[in-house]
Amino acid sequence: MGMSLDERVRSAVAALLHLSGESQTGLAAALGVSQAQVSRRQSGTAAWSLADCEAVAAHYGIDVLDLLSGPTRAVESLRAERRRAPGRRAGAGRAL
Predict the structure, then answer these.
(1) What is the pLDDT of residues 34-78, one digit of tens each?
(2) What span, in angstroms and rounded, lies between the C-alpha atoms of 96 and 26?
(3) 7-31 confidence digits (pLDDT tens)
(4) Cβ of 62: how many Cβ atoms within 10 Å?
(5) Cα 11 from chain centroid?
């Protein structure tokens, strides 16, 4: 059986965080929420709302439908300039 929508969104957000090298703290700041709120959404104890999904997609410059489709489509849609440079440590902050 395939992933649920919640699982696809969590997986897509995790993949975007990893590929971009952004931390949950950085994403939280961009969304105007706390890191704990992002963590709860990523752990599945809270759900990403549709409004959250729109904000995440806008932050990464991808279409919300690509985010909802799961990690493969989400990372394929991420522009090259948003991707972490090879050899750069994941979670390292950077100005966007």
Answers:
(1) 999 999 999 999 999 999 999 999 999 999 999 999 999 999 999
(2) 10
(3) 999 999 999 999 999 999 999 999 9
(4) 22
(5) 8
Percent helix, percent strand, percent coil in the chain, to nearest 5: 60, 0, 40
Beta strands in 1-96, from DSSP E residues, in sequence order: none
Cα 30–chain centre separation: 11
d(CA 74, CA 61): 10
Angle between helices 50-60 and 24-31 (to 10 degrees): 110
- The answer to whether 67 and 74 are in contact (CB under 8 A) is yes
Contacts of 28 (CB under 8 A, 6+ apart): 34, 35, 37, 38
For residue 94 the two structure tokens come to 């950077």
* Cα–Cα distance for residue pair 47/10, rounded to 1 Å: 9
